[in-house]
Design goal:
Layout lengths: L1 H32 L11 H16 L2 H6 L1 H7 L5 H29 L1 H32 L5 H19 L2 H12 L5 H53 L8 H10 L1
Helix pairs in contact: 2-8, 2-9, 4-7, 5-6, 5-7, 6-7, 6-8, 6-9
Length: 258
């Protein structure tokens, strides 16, 4: 009798295990049928964190807002005419191209992480300079326009620093890493999601920026972006792996080991 009871208990345990496996498989199957395999396996979570965070921080560290107000920054520095504005736009575009070429030429020699850490740290420094300079410009405008020259030129220099650092870090490197870190089985879904996060966060910043500027002013807005930039540096340092000289298979193996 005891032996029969033990056999029955073992049979019940086997059935329970089979039911659990079937439930897990059906759950994965449901996600697969919905095209959401990306969320059905825990080994995809880390590359998701890496890719999505880079796309998010690329936009919420102020890149849209700084470029939106580039013309005002250069106008305060003395480039007021339409001809000057056109020349500044060409200068800024050429500078962005030059710094992107620097990133392309050095990314496989220096690595992804160093360029990201150096570039985003430079963006934070530029945002802090813009924060300080904006206070000087606001004070000068309240007193006399001529008194704001030094702060206005500091803003122009900080803008160029910001753009240069962005173009060697978040600009090209984020997209490069997004194309490398996702396993082949979910790469198309993951890159599509990363693109959505990028455009959605850009839209969100564009939507919130006017209200934020009216509420707290541009000086505090630049300061807020600098604080977010510090979080971005920490995220890169702790979460983003170095993928230099690694094949896609070797990168995928990194996630299996975690």
């Amino acid at each position: 009798l005891a032996a029969a009871e033990l056999d029955e208990m073992a049979h019940n345990l086997q059935q329970a295990g089979a039911g659990s496996n079937s439930s897990g498989s059906s759950g994965s199957g449901l996600l697969s049928s919905l095209g959401l395999e990306l969320f059905g396996n825990s080994r995809y979570y880390r590359p998701l964190l890496v890719g999505m965070s880079l796309m998010l921080f690329q936009q919420i560290t102020g890149q849209p807002s700084v470029l939106y107000y580039a013309s005002q920054i250069f106008e305060r520095a003395g480039f007021a005419g339409g001809k000057d504005a056109a020349g500044v736009a060409v200068l800024l575009g050429g500078f962005k191209l030059l710094m992107t070429l620097v990133a392309v030429a050095s990314v496989d020699r220096l690595g992804r992480r160093p360029l990201l850490l150096f570039g985003v740290s430079g963006m934070v420094a530029a945002l802090l300079a813009l924060t300080a300079a904006q206070g000087g410009v606001d004070a000068a405008e309240a007193a006399a326009a001529a008194a704001g020259g030094g702060a206005a030129w500091l803003s122009a220099g900080a803008l160029l620093l910001y753009v240069g650092c962005y173009q060697i870090s978040f600009g090209p490197i984020s997209w490069l890493i997004v194309g490398e870190v996702f396993p082949l089985a979910v790469r198309s879904q993951a890159i599509a999601l990363a693109t959505f996060i990028n455009f959605a966060s850009n839209f969100g910043v564009s939507l919130v920026l006017p209200t934020l500027q009216d509420t707290v002013g541009m000086q505090a807005t630049y300061g807020l972006f600098a604080g977010i930039g510090v979080l971005a540096v920490a995220n890169i340092y702790y979460n983003v792996p170095e993928t230099k000289n690694k094949t896609l298979e070797q990168i995928e193996e990194l996630w299996r080991k975690e």
